[in-house]
Amino acid sequence: MDLNTEQIGKGGNRQGMKKICAAFRHYEGPTLLVAITVYVGWTALILHHDQIPWPVIFVFGGILAAWHSSVIHESVHNLNSIPKWLKNIIIFPPLGVWYPYAYYVRAHIIHHRDNNLTHPVRDPESYYLTRVRWRQTGTLVKSLLMINQTFAGRMVIGPFISVYRLVAGNIRKVMSGDNRTIKGLVIHGISLAVLFGFVSGVAGMVWWQYLLLVAYPGLMLGLVRSFCEHGAAINPNHRTAIVESGTFFSLLFLYNNLHVVHHQNPSMRWYDIPSYYRDHREEIHRHNGGYVFSGYGDVIRKTLFTPAFLPVHPSS
Fold first, then answer.
1. Residue 155 covered by a domain
2. Is residue 294 part of a domain?
3. pLDDT tens sequence across 270-312
4. What is the b/e burial string over 95-121, where b = at least 16 CB atoms within 10 angstroms of the residue's CB?
5. pTM here?
6. Does the residue 288 lie in any domain?
């Protein structure tokens, strides 16, 4: 083989690898790898739960449930280049227990109307209250809501407040005859029956242990990401934060810590966000008015026992 032939062969190999990599990314390969890792790890953890110390289950169960919720979030915006049956398999088991998928999709799509971000009525993911609602709230509940605006409070009582808000909202929709909500709850009930059929019926893990050791810490970790994710501001571009975290949290949250990029480009796949952020970092910082944290350690230092914001929305 002469030199030119060898160079052509190497060039052809490189082009072939580029095509394979491009196809892998186009057909959601990185997301599928995360989903496989989550399900394999979760299955092993649940099947062998009686041989594992509960603090280990609490840590790794929470990580896997939170990672799965990141995949669920990705499915709202992407996973359109794979067969629908495969997407349904990925999103069907509610490892985190709490959120019906149909409810989450509806609320999250509304949340992405950036002009309404943080508004206590028009943004279903807002933690703000209107001034009228605040005045009508009792002293104990006001105290709890203030505690919930600290990082420590969000980790301890935040999961209970989130579940209460979810349940209360669904009850209101059911009572009003919202058929979409009713259908979503029925599907969620079926998926929970399948989940606990495996967890308790096959693996022998008591249901309350699963809630305490997997679902609860999973929701806690999800609240780490969302804690300072949005804040009220006159300019809608300044309402979404950036947390320049390390590898662990970035992968756990599938780069949603760079949240302003996601709101600028909701259909951008998570594995394309880091390079885009690196290439446009200064421009993005100007866009969101410098609402930037140097990591979740920075978030904790600033808000551990200090409210990140007051519960009353400033423009309500």
1. yes
2. no
3. 999 999 999 999 999 999 999 999 999 999 999 999 999 999 9
4. bbbbbbbbbbbbebeebeebebbbbbe
5. 0.91
6. no
